[in-house]
Fold:
Amino acid sequence: MNRWLSDSAVERLREAADSPDLAGTRYRLIDKLGQGGVGGVFRVEDTALDRQVALKVITVGDRESNWPARLLQEARVIAKLEHPGIVPVHDAGVLADGRPFYTMKLVQGKRLDEHIATIPGLSDRLRIFLRICDAVAFAHARGVLHRDLKPGNVMVGPFGEVLVMDWGLSKLVGTSSGPATGQGAVAPVAETVGPGTAHGSVFGTPGYMAPEQTRGETSVDARADIYSLGAVLQFLLADASPSPIPRALAAVRRQATAADPADRYPSVQELADDIAHFLDGLAVSAYPEGPLARAWRWIVRNRAWILLLLAYMVTRALLIFFRPR
Amino acid sequence: MTDDTSIGGVRQQFPSTPWSVIEGTRSPHAEVRRRALDTLISAYWKPVYKYIRLHWKKENEPAKDLTQEFFARLVEKGLLARFDPDRARLRTYLRVCVDGLVMNEDKAAQRVKRGGDVTLLPLDFESAEGELHQLEVAAACNPEELFSREFARSLFGLALERLRRELKEKGKSLHFELLELYDIEEGGQQLTYDEVARRFRIKPTDVTNYLAYARREFRRIVLDELHAMTATEDEFRREAQTLLGVKL
Structure:
């Protein structure tokens, strides 16, 4: 007989079926942290090392689909990326229920999209952006494209750590001709962690995906991530300051999010350099300025010295004027 | 135990090899088509009936007639043959078909009442009606959510019954009883594993292992049943995410 199941019983059964089967592992389930496209992330206790870690496990895919292989591939890709801006993987394997999993550092922090209101200053936001660029540039140098960069995939820790998360859609590209940072450096696709785009499928997040990614083109390269970084920059600039966005910064954002990949920055490093130059009051490559704008930027950049010089000159003038005759 | 419906009961005699009901309903073999339809009806008749009662606010008798008419039409009008997995999930397609039927309910109800050209299915509407009174959330949610929730309830019910049967055959009825106590009965999770162990006169470590085994098997069966209810791997994956990973 089909027994009657109350809503709460259905919910408990759902959780029981969804929870990772940790029998035979050194992990003990604590609670669920979140649900992604293909898998859930759980807080577990690593009983061997007496610490809490995050465990990612695939929800489905134990049939013909190749999601299990993809999850392990994702773990391997992240494991290659040892960088302070990328969450480290500790362990990977297959659970008793046949589902692959990997564990990673449990990040204590907030997602950038939830944290943004507490970062009021433009320069603080740009410094966070630079840290994101650092992590992405590092991944590109290791031949890895993220393909789903967005504020929701960036965590900001309590001590100012900035971590780029969720490499589930990442793509491993060849690095035969050097780092995958330039348009000419990205070799043909070698491996795809997330769903492939061989059939023109579209994966990513609308609003942050490059146009070529939206069209399901198979030949996306590092410049798709640069587009997404430009969209993240736009997100960070919104409401950052009561005054209008400086033209130079708007130009940087425009170049990063150009519709044609050929018009974008050729590498993340060059985008980051422009942001760093802006923060230092230097010229940015995306904004060709006239003599007046250059003079004004020079004045603003050297305003302390100029004010000091003016104060000195005024003092001298006063001394000369009031000198006893 | 008695079966809610002879459809579900007869189905229990079939081997539980994974196959898609959609493929089955399009088979040239009448027996395969019948089995596929049995499988489909056993999972969907209660959600359909409750959906008609709650969402369309139909009385008991008209809802029964419409449910019977709906499954009769699935066969006669070739509604399943028209299902395109690229355009919608099977669950959504069936719900939309129910909507279409109810909107033309007068014609449908008259046909059932005449009784001449509809083969009535032996569905236990009394039990479904009884369950309606126990629903914690009535028709407050949107139609898709309501139908999803009732489909999940129906599928979990089928999976539990299959789990009970399979574990009994393997001499592991205690595993099922533990799952029943811990994950189905209200307040079960308030008990510690030590208390459960004392109650069943087993070791606390056995509670952990037995429960893990029963849950693993339950998960396997749910996915197996769901696989049968979906037409493509992509639909299966999306349905499994909805059913297991995301709260409805």
In short: Chain A has a mean pLDDT of 83. The longest helix of chain A spans residues 122-141. Chain A touches chain B at residues 1-14, 16-19, 21-23, 35, 37-38, 40, 59-65, 67, 96-97 (CB under 8 Å).
